[in-house]
Amino acid sequence: MALKSKHTQLIKTEAKRLGFLSCGVSKAAFLEEEAPRLESWLNKNMNGQMQYMENHFDKRLDPTKLVEGSKSVVSLLLNYFPSEKQSTENYKLSKYAYGTDYHFVIKDKLKSLLNFIQEEIGEVHGRAFVDSAPVLDKAWAAKSGLGWIGKHSNLLTQQVGSFYFIAELIIDLELEYDLPTTDHCGTCTACIDACPTQAIVEPYVVDGSKCISYLTIELKENIPTEFKGEMDDWMFGCDVCQDVCPWNRFSKPHNEPLFNPHPELLSMTKKDWEEITEDTFKKVFKKSAVKRTKFSGLKRNIKFLKE
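Below the sequence we write its predicted structure tokens.
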């Protein structure tokens, strides 16, 4: 037992040193509560055209099918709340996309953490995941006591709100497991009331096919005309449900230089966005997550908002 505790402490201390906001650990086992919820959500086609959500159903719910012999899921949070934001009278970009693509930033940190575990503890095998494999990040983070899943279906933490990325290391090392925290949404419905497209169809259930993040990033064809005038000027992603959440008044700016926006980004006006060229797009979003929607996708979104 003492060894498990020592290893867990070592990992958590190193995670903090690497800049992670917090670190929690849960047992790598089948997610029983999530299974019917995920099945029901998929059956109602709330994943829209995100076909990948239907793949690897078993792996999504059972980490031992993803990483052979895995014993622990180490969940980590990394803050991305910016110190400066775009002006409100503008086409808006989700705050997580201001700087360098988080996949690269976090993958490097996770590799460092895994190397540290192997050097300090010995032969430990595992894999790092950042929102790019069939892993239910929020469910694992909640199971590991890092927060609770709010009515907007994002992870929420009392001290820091929800403007952070979630990542995992799934490893074949037994550790000391954390306990889940309690839900602190209470009777608040701020996120449900504020959602511009009414995508939060009931508390804790988001219809992905109506979510502005889905419409501006995942959807590859034209945005359905029913959303005309409902998009609140969001051209990439959407932060409304997080911006209105009372817990986010505790958000503090991140200290990750790679997440700082390109100097030109915050000064761009609506007119600049409407006239953006492919060269400017490549320069401003050189290493950004915005590249996922491509220049043509961003132009499509801006055109839809302008019309």
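The two ends are 63 Å apart (CA to CA).
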